[in-house]
Amino acid sequence: MKPEISTHSSCSHMRTCVQLEKTSPLSGAESLSAHQKNMQTLSAAVDNLLKYTGFQDRARQNCVDYRLEQNDVYLPDLPAAFEGYTILHLSDLHADGLIDEGEGILRIVEHVPCDLAVFTGDFSYEDAVEYSVPSLEGLVPIVRSISSQDGIFGILGNHDSLEITPMLERMGIRMLLNDAVQLQRGTAKIILAGVDDPHFYKCHDLQKALSAVKPEQCVILLSHSPEIADEASRCGVNFYLCGHTHGGQICLPGRIPLFTNTRCNRSYLSGRWNCGAMQGYTSRGTGFSLAAARLFCPPEITLHTLHSGSLLGEIYNSVQESLGGWLKTAGHAVFA
Ligand SMILES: [Fe+2]
C-alpha cells in the first residue's frame, strides 16, 4: 500500500542558505573547509596508527564484513494492525567510497523483504564542497534490490549536499526534509517523519516535521544523528532511528569507541537505547568515512520488527504463557 503524504514542505531554502554560509571563506560560523581540515588531520592520524600497529589490512577487510542485526521494538502506542511491521534500516553508506562497490550490501538486502526501508543519511563519502554532486551510481543496484511494500525513505546527513536530493528521488528514495508521511494498514495509521541534518548543517526542524501529527499517533522519526533525541522525546516521538556515529568505527575490544564526532549521551552512540518513553536505535553504519578501516565495530544493516505493547508486557506474557499450564495443574492439585 502506498504511503499517503500528510505534509508537503521544502526546507531547501534554509539548507541552501546554510550551505552557502558554511562554504563561504568569509563565514564566521563553523566552516566546511575548517571542518574538512580537521577531518583530514584525523584521517591521516588513523591511517598512521593502523599502519604502525599492523592492523591496516585487517581493518580494511572489516569494512565489508556486513552484519544483519535484528531489533525487536515494543511500542505501547503502535496500532495492532502494525504488529510485526518490519523496517530495513541502512545508514551512512558513503556510497561513493564503498570498497566492494556495494556488492556485499546487495547480497544481504535482496534476501530481506520488508514493509518499509529507510536510509538515515550520509549517502556521500566526501563532505559537500561548493555544491559538488558526487557519483552515487553504486547506490542504484542496492536500491533496486530492496523489496519494500511501503517504499523507501531517506534523510540528508552531514556529508550530503542538498543537490543530491533529486538524484536520490529519481532512484526511488523519497526524501524527508523536515517532513512526514502517513503509513497505513487497513484503517490504522502511523507517522514516519524525517528531519534534515542536526549535526553540522543544523537545518533540522522537528516542529515542522511533526506539525501534522495528532497526539495519539505513533511516530517514527528519522534523524541523521542521535543529537536531538532529548528534544524528540519531549515532542512525543515513539521510535527514533539514526546513524552518524559509525559506532566509533575504530574501537577498542568490546566496541568501545575512540571517537564518534557526536555530542550526546554515550548510551545513544550505537544499538538500542531509550530516552524517557521514547525508544531509539543508532546504526553503526553500513559504510565508512575518513579511512577504509573498521576495528571491533563491524558495519551493519538492521531489520527492526515493531510490536504493539511494552517490553515488560511482552516478558509478562511470555512468562505467563510458560507458567500458565504449570499453575493450572498446580491449582487443580491444591484446590480440587
Ligand atoms: Fe557517516
Characterization of the model:
With 336 residues, the chain is of the alpha/beta class. It has one domain (4-10, 58-317): Metallo-dependent phosphatases (Purple Acid Phosphatase, chain A, domain 2, 4-Layer Sandwich), CATH 3.60.21.10. Helix content is 29%, strand content 22%. The chain contains 9 helices and 15 strands. It has a 7-stranded mixed beta sheet with strand order 1-7-8-9-10-14-13. Strands 2-15-3-4-5-6 form a 6-stranded mixed beta sheet. 43% of the residues are buried. Residues 92, 122, 157, 159, 244, 246, 285, 289 line the site of fe (ii) ion. Fe (ii) ion binds next to loops.
Compact summary:
The protein has about 325 residues and is an alpha/beta fold. The chain is built from 9 helices and 15 strands. The protein is about 30% helix and about 20% strand.
